[in-house]
């Protein structure tokens, strides 16, 4: 059966109109005669959205009974039985109710696609798995429900439903997104203008990267090597010379001419290290390109023009910036076309900018012989020197020949053999030695123009020619190999220094090593896989045909080894040496990661010791006061028992009772905060009715409607919380709010829902807390103002924050409009996963 097609409507935030767009598209398709059904839709009580549901067939939801609660969700079996042509499925990242076939809604969607049903679905950018951490940094809200990136990337069509941040806030203010009681909280928290702008940019960038990735895959699958100028990408070639800054600034100006232009700098180092620029200049130029918003890359290649062009094509570059050759006119005439001319010839449809600079043509370097020891090019040059130099030398010496020049003739041919040895190695040298011996015999030993060996000394002369040629060639070969090994080591050190620099700039060591290794060796993809098949880091394209080379990365602490997988081309011996060096660095990086985890665990113990020290300090001061009062009251009762009046006796007993009760509460708080700080707080999470816990907390405080105003949402679903801990949190926060609220005003307690998060807001109209002191509010042993016998240790808010975070929620302070402080307790709504399957926090 042909698999269905998936269309994803991606939004930056709730309320941008994803569900509305999905329903409008469903109605349009239905009007065109397509079989469209609503598998599941969440209208969130928005009238305009609910109106679009009318007229479209709706599959009734499945009802599941869980722990005494009736939960409804999409009926997968019903949709499959109905088998429409197109199904509308809202909220792709949703977690299904327990008892349904799949845990996540995206798994239901996958089943529909396998059944040949096309699906149109919606998802917000904050629910994409790889972006969860980024979104949490932006909004401060951790996402409980996510969908794997691969699910969204595999969609046949992804569309961004876009709405400007201010327009979304206007919709929110008009009551088109949330009920009136939730508008103020939403505008001052998640829906701040900065948050929405960042989320919108994140959604657009994610989609742009997805389009770029799809473009690269398409070009690779169809063998398209030419650049497609969908986005302006400017590659600047750096040599490590002084001209690099000029080239980078020119490249940045070119990239800035178009919206979304990218700047990439690349340095080509040879495998044998012959081309190595000034490390200091390269480091400064790398810092410059990063300050200009670009990225720095390093590749290895003996053919500089080809390496540059291949890199430019691999990143789909549209512009290539190189510097004018630093060779003078004479050297250019002697050595032929330089790198610039070759790049222009091979660049194809990539525009090449050759930029002049101060160092252009101001040097006269000696020509260098390229290539490694005993390369094919050097051997060919050696044979060519022997074939050309031999006849020329013979012509010259024959024209000057006489009986007294035989010694100089022999030395001249010996010099030719040495030169050929230096250039071409042993085989061209042996060829030159044999040819020189016979040439001397033919042209310079009487009788002339005959080859005869009448004297045994002539045989020795031939042998000596060959022996000298072999010895010189051997020395040249060893020197060249030693130089190549040293230069190779230099290239390896340069790569590893490059990675070290990445780590110092804040990049993670393992991903930096993986990325730089792939770039430097020109591989299609590299990834590091742990012993349990967990992908630690990856870079480049995934393995398509299952063929790759694997290198074991041992852990120095004796743990199971990881595996480094490389694919793209077969590695030669020199590249394997570099991979061995990278594997050693990866081993050190993995060890560092393991040690960091151990150090983090040790840090918890250190924090525990600090808490114990603080507890001892508190005991020495704060516990002494109620204890002393209780001891004094009991002592007074014992000493003056016969002479006490009933009123004095009752007062002493009340003082002792009050002090002992205060002492009991203080000890309880001390034990609780010790468990919170030490990370051993036991939390039993379960669905909790927020209204019931709020009322229980008010009963514990003995508070009535004269002090507290309730605005509880009757439709708020159960929270995921520990009811005992949540009541302690509410008691602490409510008592603080009541203490700081002036007479004649009431503390407002309101509940509301924001996506998968429920909020309990305690609003007072007291003096408030300045923003710079809000962090201190939650530190243990912090109090404002003087204390008396009934004052605590300043642990109430510290405990409340610890308890809330232990339940997976947050406790945050906000300004109350008109003055005062609002404490917001945010907790996830009831998790459909059964409690027995959830670990204790």
TrEMBL record:
Organism lineage string = Bacteria, Bacillati, Actinomycetota, Actinomycetes, Micrococcales
Enzyme kind, highest EC tier: transferase
- Histidine kinase domain location is 618-831
Name this protein carries in UniProt: histidine kinase
Q: Which reaction does it catalyse?
A: ATP + protein L-histidine = ADP + protein N-phospho-L-histidine
- TM spans (from-to): 380-398, 410-439, 459-480
The reply to whether Chloroplast figures as a keyword in the UniProt entry is no
Q: Which Gene3D superfamilies match?
A: 1.10.287.130, Backbone structure of the membrane domain of e. Coli histidine kinase receptor kdpd (1.20.120.620), Histidine kinase-like ATPase, C-terminal domain (3.30.565.10), HUPs (3.40.50.620), P-loop containing nucleotide triphosphate hydrolases (3.40.50.300)
Q: Which UniProt keywords apply?
A: ATP-binding, Kinase, Membrane, Nucleotide-binding, Phosphoprotein, Transferase, Transmembrane, Transmembrane helix, Two-component regulatory system
The record's annotation in Pfam families points to: DUF4118, HATPase_c, HisKA, KdpD, Usp
Membrane topology term: Multi-pass membrane protein
Per UniProt, subcellular location reads as:
Cell membrane; Membrane
Q: Does the keyword ATP-binding apply?
A: yes
Instruction: Supply the EC number(s).
Output: 2.7.13.3
Q: Which PROSITE patterns match?
A: HIS_KIN (PS50109)
């Amino acid at each position: 059966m042909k698999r269905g097609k998936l269309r994803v409507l991606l939004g930056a935030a709730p309320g941008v109109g994803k569900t509305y767009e999905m329903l409008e598209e469903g109605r349009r398709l239905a009007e065109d005669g397509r079989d469209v059904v609503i598998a599941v839709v969440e209208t969130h009580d928005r009238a305009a959205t609910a109106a679009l549901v009318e007229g479209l067939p709706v599959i009734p939801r499945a009802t599941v009974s869980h722990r005494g609660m009736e939960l409804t969700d999409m009926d997968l079996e019903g949709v499959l039985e109905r088998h429409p042509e197109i199904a509308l499925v809202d909220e792709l990242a949703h977690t299904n109710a327990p008892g349904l076939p799949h845990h996540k809604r995206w798994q239901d969607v996958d089943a529909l696609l396998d059944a040949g049903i096309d699906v149109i679905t919606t998802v917000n950018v904050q629910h994409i798995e790889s972006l969860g951490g980024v979104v949490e940094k932006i909004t401060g809200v951790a996402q409980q429900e996510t969908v794997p990136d691969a699910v969204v990337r595999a969609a046949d069509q992804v569309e961004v439903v876009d709405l400007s941040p201010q327009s979304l806030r206007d919709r929110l203010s008009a009551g088109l997104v949330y009920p009136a009681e939730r508008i103020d909280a939403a505008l001052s928290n998640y829906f701040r203008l900065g948050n929405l702008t960042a989320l919108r940019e994140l959604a657009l960038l994610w989609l742009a990267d997805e389009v770029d990735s799809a473009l690269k895959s398409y070009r690779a699958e169809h063998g398209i090597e030419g650049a497609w100028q969908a986005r302006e990408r400017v590659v600047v070639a750096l040599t490590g010379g002084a001209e690099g800054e000029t080239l980078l600034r020119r490249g940045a100006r070119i990239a800035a001419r178009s919206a979304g232009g990218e700047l990439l700098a690349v340095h080509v180092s040879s495998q044998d290290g012959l081309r190595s620029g000034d490390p200091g200049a390269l480091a400064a130029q790398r810092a410059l390109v990063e300050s200009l918003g670009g990225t720095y890359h390093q590749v290895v290649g003996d053919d500089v023009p080809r390496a540059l062009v291949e890199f430019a094509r691999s990143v789909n570059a549209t512009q290539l910036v190189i510097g004018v050759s630093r060779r003078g006119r004479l050297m250019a005439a002697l050595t032929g076309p330089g790198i610039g001319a070759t790049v222009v010839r091979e660049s194809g449809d990539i525009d090449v900018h050759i930029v002049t600079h101060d160092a252009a043509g101001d040097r006269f370097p000696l020509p260098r012989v390229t290539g490694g020891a005993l390369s094919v090019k050097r051997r060919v040059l050696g044979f060519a020197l022997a074939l050309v130099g031999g006849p020329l030398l013979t012509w010259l010496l024959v024209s000057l020949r006489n009986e007294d020049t035989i010694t100089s003739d022999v030395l001249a041919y010996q010099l030719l053999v040495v030169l050929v040895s230096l250039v071409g190695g042993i085989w061209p040298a042996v060829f030159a030695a044999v040819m020189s011996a016979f040439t001397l015999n033919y042209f310079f030993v009487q009788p002339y123009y005959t080859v005869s060996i009448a004297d045994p000394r002539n045989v020795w002369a031939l042998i000596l020619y060959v022996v000298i040629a072999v010895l010189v060639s051997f020395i040249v070969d060893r020197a060249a190999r030693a130089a190549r090994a040293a230069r190779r080591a230099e290239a390896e050190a340069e790569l590893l220094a490059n990675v070290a620099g990445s780590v110092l700039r804040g990049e993670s060591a393992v991903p930096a090593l993986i990325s730089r290794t792939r770039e430097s060796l020109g591989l299609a993809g590299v990834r590091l896989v742990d012993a349990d098949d967990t992908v630690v880091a990856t870079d480049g394209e995934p393995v398509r045909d299952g063929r790759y080379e694997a290198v074991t990365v041992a852990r120095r602490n004796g743990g199971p080894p990881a595996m480094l997988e490389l694919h793209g081309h077969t590695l030669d011996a020199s590249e394997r040496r570099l991979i061995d060096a990278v594997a050693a660095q990866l081993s050190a990086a993995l060890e560092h990661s393991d040690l960091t985890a151990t150090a983090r665990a040790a840090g918890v113990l250190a924090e525990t010791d600090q808490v114990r020290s603080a507890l001892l300090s508190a005991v020495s001061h704060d516990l002494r006061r109620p204890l002393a009062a209780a001891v004094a009251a009991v002592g007074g009762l014992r000493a003056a028992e016969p002479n006490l009046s009933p009123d004095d006796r009752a007062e002493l007993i009340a003082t002792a009772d009050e002090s002992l009760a205060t002492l009991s509460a203080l000890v309880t708080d001390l034990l609780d905060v010790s468990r919170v700080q030490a990370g051993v707080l036991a939390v039993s999470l379960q669905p909790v009715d927020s209204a019931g816990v709020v009322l229980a907390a008010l009963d514990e405080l003995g508070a009535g409607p004269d002090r507290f105003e309730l605005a509880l949402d009757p439709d708020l679903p159960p929270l995921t919380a520990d009811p005992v801990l949540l009541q302690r949190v509410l008691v602490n926060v409510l008592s603080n709010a009541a203490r700081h609220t002036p007479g004649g005003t009431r503390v407002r307690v309101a509940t509301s829902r924001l996506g998968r998060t429920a909020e309990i807001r305690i609003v007072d109209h007291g003096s408030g807390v300045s923003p710079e002191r809000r962090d201190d509010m939650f530190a243990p042993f912090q109090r404002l103002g003087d204390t008396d016998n009934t004052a605590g240790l300043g642990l109430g808010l510290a405990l409340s924050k610890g308890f809330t975070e232990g339940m997976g929620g947050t406790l945050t302070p906000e300004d109350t409009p008109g003055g005062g402080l609002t404490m917001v307790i945010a907790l996830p709504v009831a998790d459909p996963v059964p409690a027995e399957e959830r670990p204790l926090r």
